[in-house]
Design a protein that fits this description.
4 strands, binds zinc ion, mainly alpha, two-stranded antiparallel ribbon
């Protein structure tokens, strides 16, 4: 899961934090900061990319939305329909999960053959598993709803990245590398490409800066 930096709340011309009256008003700024990618599954989206509340704006049992959650810049990410609906209004305790804007989700989640997602061994494994289940990244063709094609999209991305790696080995040119970066920008699944190209630090260094908002500090492990 791509670790991201949302940055401070946008300000108006006078330098004052923008006071959102509806969370949808943050969508444009979030896309500028984070790119048009789901913060959880990393799918590239445009019109259906929704403002996601990390903590639900109206948790179960609440009679009305909580303004400090509904309109808080620090509570916003971007999510696709599947991640958003799977997570639903689960009233999360932040410390029990890993979050792309707070934690090093690049190190904590592992991508493997076919685009499968799992939790890395380590002290944060339990929280990583919770995050994977929270948004449904563990779902397979057997367990996912018919409308949930994230597993298929990840598998296709994995195959595309493998093919691109093979092509690069055959024809290692700056043009080929630029094509790889363009594909990740337009198609998403940054973590899968980072995994497949793990032995090509030259490509990784380009991928790390390819998308807006990537937490580069969390990815400098080479
Ligand atoms: Zn998603």
């Amino acid at each position: 899961m791509r670790p991201v930096v949302r940055g401070p709340c946008p300000v108006d011309e006078g330098g004052t934090n923008v006071a959102f009256t509806h969370y949808s008003q943050a969508r444009k700024a979030l896309i500028q900061r984070l790119g048009e990618h789901c913060s959880y599954c990393e799918m590239h989206l445009d019109s259906s990319l929704a403002v996601e509340h990390v903590q639900p704006k109206q948790p179960p049992g609440a009679t009305q939305p909580m303004p400090e959650r509904a309109l808080s810049w620090d509570n916003f990410l971007l999510a696709c329909t599947n991640c958003n609906s799977t997570k639903g209004d689960t009233d999360v305790v932040l410390a029990n999960y890993l979050w792309p804007d707070r934690d090093n989700t690049f190190m904590a989640l592992v991508y493997s053959e076919g685009g499968k997602v799992s939790a890395a061994n380590g002290p944060q494994q339990a929280q990583a598993i919770n995050t994977i289940k929270l948004v449904g990244l563990h779902k397979t063709p057997d367990t996912a709803e018919a409308s949930d094609r994230r597993w298929l999209n990840r598998r296709e991305a994995w195959d595309m990245a493998q093919d691109s790696l093979h092509d690069l080995m055959c024809c290692d040119t700056p043009e080929m590398q630029r094509q790889i970066v363009r594909t990740v920008k337009s198609n998403g699944y940054w973590s899968i490409w980072m995994t497949v190209f793990k032995d090509r630090p030259d490509v990784l260094s380009e991928l790390i800066v390819a998308l807006p908002g990537t937490n580069t500090a969390a990815t400098t492990i080479w």
